[in-house]
Specification:
With 715 residues, the protein is mainly alpha-helical. The chain contains 33 helices and seven strands. Strands 2-3-4-1-5 form a five-stranded parallel sheet. Strands 6-7 form a two-stranded antiparallel ribbon. α6 links the parallel β3 and β4. The N and C termini lie far apart (84 Å). The relative contact order is 0.05.
Length: 715
């Protein structure tokens, strides 16, 4: 209706202008010759016609922007265009779990919403305040915690007349940004935010353009996905700050985060009792001491129990295997729906591992139908989507199943079906799981397709797995290429520059690394500011390079001078601030003040355990330094005891094949030799050498180091 009035208004204006043009010609006839009068009228009419054409062109451009954005939208109005928030009729489209009505469930204010009555949560006041103030609002919680329902109810209440932009996936983000040229505020809906992060999707620059339009972004994210960009992840990637991970982290840092628990509080359950005439609410309340109310409403526990029972011979073992295959697709890093053909190939791995033909599996069609069948009184199913367009695992399974590592056969098959962007996500997921072999293969696929973030990530993985020379060569090539094509001051060029300097230092060339870092520092100061975390990190790396050049006392002093700036800018308990404390302790010990270093490291172990957790990679690393300083002050028995405990913890947390686990093996062997004598240490050295040969090969530099220490020969 609004568009109709707008069009009518335009044509009224055009008619008025036309009348004025005719009048101009008539009036000119009294004062000018006939020919000139005709020209004057024609010119006036031409000007009027040009104005009309420009108005119509502007209207056409705006219509085109809407149509282009609408093609990539998940939710549309009845005309196929942008709906208002209040016009959303199907809750499933925005990610709310489906439900089925039951007789006697009571009356509903909005009968078209196939959902139980909404129960306000304890986070409601904070959520409403965040949405009212605008910007980027993010609800974080486990699957079936109720985050999607709470977020959309807040949007419907507080911005019902906003036009809704809801892209289907990451590829829809550019079209969405194009629609923002209309310069009116929207409500941008991003359920399951992990599906939109990454190159070509929601990056820091894309987020800035969305917020500049005055739009409000409301998003949800499962807790495990949010944790991928937290302190634990930052430790695993050794602060290498890869572009993909960095962009995701920077996006999340700009959000107003609200956490919503899966378990409901007594106050929330009391509010739910006002609606216990709804049998769905009543059933959920009866189980709310064990499960969350929203969890039961979404049928999570029932689906999980049905899946477990399905493995019985003659039940639905093939269907259960299809679900496991879909779960591992998402665990591998592919967040979008995948073709049924991929699940058909994958599920045979899981079916075979559970017994294969002995389980008397049902036919494939029957298995697929079972996974898609709504359970009991709910509309929820184990797989979500349509077979013709793709399926995803119900995310409740990702948060509740205690699954083992994805089988190599499955992971390799998933990678063969991954798009370049999916391969990039798979690489980051593998990296955060400390599966460097998988990360390297996934990054290679993405880099081969030309994704800029992947080539740097692949090179850094080479460095993390001991192939420093190859990593430095690749990074130098990338840096030089980006300098030529993008300029030395471009963000991507600076990232490659920083990683080249970092790995050149690890390569054992501190003078060259120091020169690279000193060249990088003014560029980062100019573009990011003197106190930006990346600028401060460059200063810290300069101090490390100074220490590697044989000036450890000077390096310790530089780190001490930096500590206050880190504490002010990032906070005293931030992971990077703790890293500065670790560098102070390390360079203090390297300068010969072993007792002081031991005391500082002991304090650091306590601080990292408190702030990051006992199993955090940085906490384990600090414990390794503690073993070294104990040995340096002559406390060999205590050093051996702590080294053995550390080895057990690293095998448990990182796995037996991780480089840090191998380092702990070398520490145990050296400590045993010092505490118990060379003869007693021989079996430990032999086992250590065998593990290095098995994992790294006989020619690896770390294997050669074990040969040097132990006196054994390989082969």
């Amino acid at each position: 209706m609004r568009n109709l009035w707008f069009r009518c208004g335009l044509w009224v204006k055009f008619a008025v202008l036309a009348v004025m043009g005719s009048a101009a010609a008539l009036i000119a006839g009294f004062w000018l010759p006939a020919a000139q009068a005709g020209v004057t009228g024609a010119v006036f009419l031409a000007l009027c016609g040009g104005a009309a054409a420009r108005n119509e062109s502007a209207l056409s451009d705006r219509r085109h922007e809407r149509e282009r954005a609408a093609t990539s939208l998940l939710v549309k109005d009845l005309r196929g265009g942008l709906p208002r928030v209040r016009e959303v009729r199907d809750p499933v489209l925005v990610g709310i779990h489906p439900y089925q009505h039951e007789d006697g469930d009571g009356d509903y204010t909005e009968s078209h919403w196939n959902t139980p009555p909404y129960i306000p949560r304890d986070i409601e006041a904070d959520l409403h305040a965040a949405v009212r103030s605008g910007g980027f609002v993010l609800l974080v919680g486990e699957s079936t915690a109720g985050k999607t329902r709470s977020a959309f109810e807040a949007a419907r209440l507080l911005m019902p007349d906003r036009f809704l932009l809801s892209p289907r996936n990451r590829d829809g983000i550019p079209s969405l940004i194009g629609a923002l040229n209309l310069q009116r505020p929207y409500m941008i809906w991003l359920d399951d935010l992990e599906r939109f992060l990454g190159p070509g999707g929601l990056t820091s620059s894309a987020l800035s353009r969305m917020l500049a339009s005055g739009s409000t972004i409301v998003a949800t994210l499962r807790t495990p996905e949010y944790d991928r960009f937290g302190d634990h992840a930052e430790a695993v990637v050794d602060s290498a700050d890869y572009e993909v991970w960095r962009d995701g982290r920077d996006v999340l840092r700009q959000a107003k985060k609200i956490r919503i628990p899966r378990q409901w509080s007594p106050a929330e359950r009391e509010r739910a009792r006002f609606h216990r005439s709804d049998r769905r609410i009543s059933r959920a309340l009866s189980a709310s001491e064990v499960f969350g109310v929203a969890e039961v409403l979404a049928a999570g526990p029932e689906l999980l129990e049905a899946w477990k029972n399905a493995w019985s011979p003659g039940a639905h073992p093939r269907g259960a295997a299809l679900v496991m295959a879909a779960v591992d697709v998402r665990r591998a890093g592919m967040h979008e729906a995948v073709p049924v053909s991929l699940l058909e190939r994958l599920h045979e791995v899981y079916l075979g591992n559970r017994g294969g033909a002995q389980l008397r599996p049902e036919a494939l069609d029957a298995a697929l139908a079972w996974t898609l069948r709504p359970l009991g009184h709910t509309g929820a199913s184990m797989l979500v989507g349509e077979p013709a367009t793709g399926l995803r695992a119900f995310d409740y399974f990702l948060d509740t199943l205690n699954l083992e590592v994805i089988p190599d056969e499955s992971w390799d098959l998933i990678l063969t079906q991954a798009s370049p962007r999916d391969a990039l996500d798979m690489g980051m997921t593998a990296l955060l799981d400390a599966r460097h072999d998988r990360a390297e293969r996934a990054f290679a696929v993405a880099a081969g397709a030309g994704l800029a973030a992947a080539d740097v990530a692949k090179a850094v993985v080479l460095g993390k797995t001991g192939r420093i020379d190859q990593a430095v060569d690749e990074l130098r090539t990338i840096w030089e290429s980006r300098t030529r094509s993008l300029g030395r001051e471009a963000r991507d060029t600076l990232d490659a520059h920083a990683k080249l300097a970092y790995l050149t230092l690890k390569q054992g060339r501190p003078a060259e690394a120091l020169a690279l870092m000193r060249e990088l520092l003014p560029l980062r100061e100019a573009h990011l500011g003197e106190n930006h975390p990346e600028t401060l990190d460059t200063r810290l790396q300069i101090a490390n390079a100074v220490g590697r050049l044989g000036r450890p006392a000077e390096a310790a002093d530089q780190c001490r001078a930096l500590l206050g700036r880190f504490q002010r800018e990032l906070g005293p308990d931030h992971i990077n601030t703790l890293d500065v404390e670790a560098r102070i302790a390390m360079w203090t010990g390297k300068s010969g003040r072993y007792a002081e270093a031991l005391a500082l490291t002991g304090e650091l172990v306590g601080r990292r355990t408190s702030c990051l957790g006992a199993d955090h990679a940085d906490t384990l690393y600090a414990r390794g330094r503690q073993v070294a300083w104990l040995a340096a002050v002559g406390l060999h028995e205590e050093a051996l005891e702590r080294a053995r405990t550390l080895l057990d913890d690293r095998k448990r947390v990182l796995g037996p094949d991780h480089l840090h686990t191998l380092h702990a093996r070398r520490q145990v062997a050296r400590s045993a030799e010092r505490a118990e004598g060379p003869d007693a240490a021989l079996p430990v050295w032999r086992e250590t050498l065998e593990e290095h040969v098995r994992i790294l090969g006989a020619g690896h530099r770390l294997t050669r180091k074990v040969v040097e220490f132990s006196g054994f020969r390989v082969g």
